[in-house]
Amino acid sequence: MEEPILSVPEVAAINYPGVSERVKATVMDSMVIVFMIIGATYLFEQFDDVSATVRTAAFVFIFGLYDPVMTSVFGATLGHRSMGIRVSKGSDHQQKIAFPLAVVRYVIKALLGWLSLLTVGSSKDKRAIHDMAVGSVVLYR
Q1: For residue 11, what pLDDT is reported?
Q2: Range of 67's domain?
Q3: Bridge partner list, 21
Q4: Would residue 67 count as lying in a domain?
Q5: Any residues with CB less than 8 A from the CB of 107 and at least 6 apart, and which?
Q6: Residue 79, Cβ neighbours under 10 Å: how many?
Q7: Mean pLDDT over residues 66-70, rounded?
Q8: 88, 101 Cβ separation under 8 angstroms
Q9: Measured in whole angstroms, how far is the alpha carbon of residue 66 from the centre of its chain?
Q10: How far apart are CA 11 and CA 9, in angstroms?
Q11: Number of domains in the chain
Q12: In a domain, 11, yes or no
């Protein structure tokens, strides 16, 4: 009797998060940013004379670099982590995106706002415009 040929097991299909998970993560990240700005404000109040330059730098760092730093260093923001998703790059989806690409991704995301998410439902890997621009993808962890 002939033995059946064993087939190579198929790789499980990747399940990409939809718009609702991504929106929830964004709302959570917005709350984190607001709390960080409030915290910085209270911290600055503890000192007699904090220059406008220092205040501006703190705001730029918190508002402008939170997402790119978290995404490039940790692969996810706090909002992403809470939703069980991460941002990835590469054919194997295991690489974190480089910081310059994370900055470009965030700038496009911020400029387009909710419009950037319009393409999530129409692409097979549920990529937003800002993901397509830098070659990133959002996956479940």
Answers
A1: 44
A2: 19-140
A3: none
A4: yes
A5: none
A6: 23
A7: 96
A8: no
A9: 10
A10: 6
A11: 1
A12: no
Q: What is the DSSP letter of 96?
A: P
Residue 49 domain-assigned (yes or no): yes
3-state secondary structure of 29: helix
Query: pLDDT tens for residues 82-125?
Result: 999 999 997 777 889 999 999 999 999 999 988 888 888 888 88
CA distances from 117 to 4, 19, 22, 67 (A): 47, 7, 9, 16
**Nearest Cα to Cα of residue 15 among 140, 132, 107:** 140
Q: What is the mean pLDDT of residues 124-132?
A: 91
Distance, in Å, from the CA atom of 25 to the CA atom of 102, rounded to the nearest integer, reads: 16
Start-to-end C-alpha separation, the chain: 45
CB 134 within 8 A of CB 26: no
Q: 42 in a domain, yes or no?
A: yes
Q: Which amino acid is at 23?
A: V
CB 77 within 8 A of CB 25: yes
